[in-house]
Amino acid sequence: MAKDERLLHRMNEGLHDMCYIWAKEMRAVVKDEGVLIFFILVPLLYPLLYSWAYNNEVTREVPVAVVDQSHSALSRQFIRSYDAAPDVAVKYHCNSLDEAQRLVGRQVVRGVLFLPSDFESSLGRMEQTHVGVYCDMSIMLFYKAIYQTATSVAAVTNSRIQVSLSGHYTEREEEISSSPLAFDEVPLFNSTGGYGSFILPMVLMLIIQQTLLLGIGLSAGTAREQNRYRDLVPVSSHYNGIFRIVLGKSACYAMVYAVMASYLVFVIPRLFHFTAIGRPSAILGLLTPYVLACIFFGMFMSCVIRYRENVLMLVVFTTLPFLFLAGISWPESGMPGAWKAVAYLIPSTFGIRGFVRINTMGATLSDVGFEYRMLWIQVLVYFFLTCAVYRHQIIRAHRHAVERIERTLQKAIEARKK
After folding, report:
1. Which residue in 107, 294, 77 sits closest to 204, CA to CA?
2. Whole-angstrom distance, CA of residue 248 vs CA of residue 24
3. SS3 (DSSP) at 135
4. Which pLDDT score is estimated for 236?
5. How far apart are CA 232 and CA 303, in angstroms?
6. How far apart are CA 282 and CA 286, in angstroms?
7. Could you write out the DSSP letters of every residue in 262-326?
8. Cα 326 to chain center, whole Å?
9. Nearest-angstrom CA–CA distance, 109 and 139
10. For a disulfide at 354, which of 236, 252, 279, 368, Cβ 3.0-4.6 Å?
11. Is 148 exposed, middle or buried (0-12, 13-18, 19+ CB in 10 A)?
12. Residues 266, 271, 275, 278: what is their CA dihedral angle, to the nearest 10 degrees?
């Protein structure tokens, strides 16, 4: 009976201490401007700015310079068809490639269409002719617009020449001759082929992880700077248990990001009309282990941060690598084995993959079962790793406290002797 009472007393004490730590951490979040910015303002405003930048989805009217050395009826028809396409706009007609190159160098145009002097005469002699396309490769969307438009116009021109030489008598014969194999191009899921619908789901999930790393790291740096011995855990009766510390702090972060993460994954895609066909229940199911994994990952990483400034450098350095390691912008099959192993340590890897498949492709939670299980494994692994490092921090803080008491007693003894 006494043993049960002691157990209940310890459970009640642990729950009380956990609530105390939660309340203290919540007050620290509200009072610390840096933490408040990364927990509230950045998740609120950064997705809006990013979404506005990509709200057009595709590039239109990319400026192009044309060098027409043929000056023939066929070359002018080719240029008119090229200029009529929605993705490009012929802005300059140049006399030489050098002149067009200078325009590209000044970024007045993003590409050059070159038609040689024998463009029409080669076709008249039943010989193959060539069209030169020079693209600014600094932005892949410009390259896509300029090159694909030139390819489409060349295909239409080829069909017209083929029909004119075929000698058929009916339109149906000409249609079959120019296009013997008809096909329909249907982009799955991202029907517009838009860059925003492609990149935004990755960015939203990465924002959750990186802002948690920033906020938790800043909070840990502040706790160390306010401690005399640069310890993460203060010496207090409320901080005597590992689980009460870890659960109390994580409960604070989870409450904040239950709201912020829901805003990011539900409000932003629908506000800007990006592709969002996932079921809310599946998204919430994936979001739960993802946020927990990010929290414990951030708490574990915060134990190595001694100053507030360090976390900023850490997150800035890791953001782009984390994005590439997710295997969406660059296929996982093209990664070396070592980088695949590193990717498995990062919560955003499985969070991004699962969210893209659910939100953009309409997958269910069972369809992303591997990512879902890996996130729960990361929750458990990082939870126990966080408990281990906090246990070390508690022991270290107590050792510093004992050393301080011993020094104080030693000074008192020396003062009495004098």
Report:
1. 294
2. 9
3. strand
4. 67
5. 7
6. 6
7. HIIIIIHHHHTT------HHHHHHHHHHHHHHHHHHHHHHHTT--SHHHHHHHHHHHHHHHHHHT
8. 8
9. 13
10. 368
11. middle
12. 20
Q: Pairing relation of β-strands 111-115 and 62-68?
A: parallel
Residues 348, 260: Cα–Cα separation, whole Å:
16
Q: Which residue type is seen at 207?
A: I
Which residue, 274, 271, 276, is CA-closest to 355? 276
Cα 175 to the center of its chain, rounded Å: 46
Quick: pLDDT tens for 302-347. Answer: 887 777 777 788 888 888 888 888 887 777 777 888 888 999 999 9
* DSSP annotation string for 53-98: HTTT-S---EEEEEEESS-SHHHHHHHHHHHHSTTEEEEEEESSHH
Sign of the CA dihedral running 71, 76, 78, 83: positive
Which has the higher per-residue pLDDT, 160 or 373?
373
Closest to 375 in 3D by CA, of 209, 252, 227, 162: 209
- pLDDT recorded at residue 205: 93
- Residue of 204, 335, 334, 327 whose CA lies nearest to 275: 204
Q: Report the distance separating Cα 62 and Cα 86, nearest Å.
A: 9
Cβ-based neighbours of 17, under 8 Å, separated by 6 or more: 237, 238, 239, 240, 241, 244, 248
| Structure-block tokens of residue 331 | 């296929």
User: How do beta strands 111-115 and 132-135 pair?
Assistant: antiparallel
Helix (H, G, I), strand (E, B) or coil at 134: strand
From CA 385, how far away is CA 393, in angstroms rounded?
12
Q: What value does the CA radius of gyration of the chain take, rounded to a whole number of Å?
A: 31
Written as six digits, the tokens of 295 are 């929290």
For 214, counting Cβ atoms within 10 Å of its Cβ (0-12 exposed, 13-18 middle, 19+ buried), the class is: buried
Best CA proximity match to 404, nearest among 223, 220, 219, 227? 227
Alpha-carbon dihedral angle through residues 265, 268, 273, 279, given to the nearest 10 degrees: 20
36 token code pair? 């408040």
User: Is the full-model pTM beyond 0.85?
Assistant: no
Q: Which residues pair with 134 in a beta bridge?
A: 112
